[in-house]
Fold this sequence. Notes:
TIM Barrel, elongated, alpha/beta, Alpha-Beta Plaits, single chain, eight-stranded mixed barrel, Beta-Lactamase, six-stranded antiparallel beta sheet
Amino acid sequence: MGAQNVRSGTAPRMPYPPNSAVTDGGMVNQFLIGLAALAVIAAAAFGIWWLRVHSRKDFGRADAAHRAAFEQSPNSVLIVDAASLKVIDANASLQRSLGYTLSEVCGVSVAQLFTDESGEPEALIRRLRDPNLRLPFEICQRSKTGALRSVEVTVQRLDLGKRHLLVLAAHDVTVRRKVEAQLLEKQQRLDHLAHHDQLTGLPNRLYLAAHLPGAIAEAKRTSAMLAVLFLDLDRFKHINDSRGHETGDKLLKAVAQRIRETMRTEDMVVRMGGDEFIVVLKTVKNTDQVNEAAGRITEALSAPVIVDGRPLVTTASIGVSLYPRDGSDMGELLRHSDTAMYQAKDRGRNNFQLFSPIMARRLKERMAIETSLRTALQTGQLDVHYQPIVDIQTSRVVALESLLRWKHPSHGFVPPERFVAVAEEAGLIVPIGEFVLARAVEDIARWRQVGCVQVPVAVNISAVQLQRSNLPATITRLTQQHGVSPKMLQLELTESAVFERREGRTGESNEDAVGRLRELGVRIAIDDFGTGYSSLSYLKRWRVDYLKIDRSFVRDLVTDMSDLAIVGAIIAMARHLNIQVVAEGIEGWQQLEKLRQLGCSLAQGYLFAKPVPEEQCRRYLSGEPLDLTEHDPLLEALEATGT
């Protein structure tokens, strides 16, 4: 059951799956056709024998053998006068099937014994007398009781002087028709299985491959628009991981039903695999119609789905491509709708986007970054720099924050905002996070060896890393390996990473995971505080050591009264909760002085020091106060201009 909703790659596009039953059906048909051919040959032989017998008065052993074969044939055989169509002779098989005796059937017209689908005797007579008749044909045989039975008849014309005869060989096709019906039903069932999704019952990618080109051709013929909507459920993998694949399957079935119910009958709704769906809107008049359809899907999915008595909420990111504007064939339309879908993901999910050429360029850039980032991770292009966190009152370094840096061999340093989101989407954030964590522990041990003052090192942890990796086990292994106390580590998590109600692969909640980290002695900081949930109830229930005020509040602290009020409220609240506050992004003396007045204890920013590699960071670990005049941004700017 769980395998149904696993995200899959592109399946081989086979028109039909190999099927032994269909092959067997072909063998049955060949066998029955062979019987029909034998019947034709037998009819001709019986006719020739009959002519021989009735053309002379003496009967030999050969004639007796032919008569025995005629009587014992499983096929019904009639000898008919071609002119009157009266029966002259009939074998035992025909007598049994019709319920007549030989004397009763002789002299009866063929039109009384057989009828075709037209029900007109004249039409049947014309078919029997057709001089070009060679192939068997199907008609109905009428018994003495009036019952009808389908038979296949072959006719052989025989001429003896002025006497013209017809030899009719008929065999019952009831069994064959039953077998054919069963094979047809089985083939239709196999065809449905091959072209429909087993879980949801929707058409699948093979069905789409078979029918979308035809829909495009029809749109081209009628000069109409056609829309392809690519849907991807948001955070569906989290539901699979936390609730199990069985719950995920039930959710997929409900989602499929809701999508189908929002569309018109003529529209195509396809499950591509995993949590991806395709909707094809035919005969589209304008983009407003497409927007309305995408809006209906978004609204339909917004209502909770009750699965096993528990409500589940899922949303979808939808990308749209239009024929002929965005592509002339199936491949182009699917690629461009997929590109637009990723744009919808980037814009916060739970929305739809129409394709534009700029999206293709962005996706190409994104893919290039992902490829380069994988290479960077393997070839050692990534490095860790450190920035001091300073006590505002003493100007002493009390901690360091580790910051990931990527130096591309061709493009130089790549800003983190360009690749961190890509790393999270591609699943690379876990190995990258482990790399930073390992480097931080190694550098702590290295600084201890050279006699530096020991201060905690803060490491940023993403929500993905918290959920998908066993951080407590990793930290225990690394600290034991290098002889470092876990108390020397401070993990910085964003509000969404900590406070969202999520469960990891093992069913452990974020709160449980953070609790296990605290048991090791690791300190916990909430990064970018004020930009996410900022729920006071979470701060009351959870134990955290630091709140880091986001730089967006600090930047205009001196001139913006709203920012000043927010920062002041955070500092006052943290003081009562015995939580230390770190202000980020300090670049000027006025900011620093205002924070000192508000009672903020710790600060970080270019006013104190820029992030530097490990070997340059040792000068911050002497235990002496920092000389802030060395890092005055104003003085540095004046020196750079030569004034």
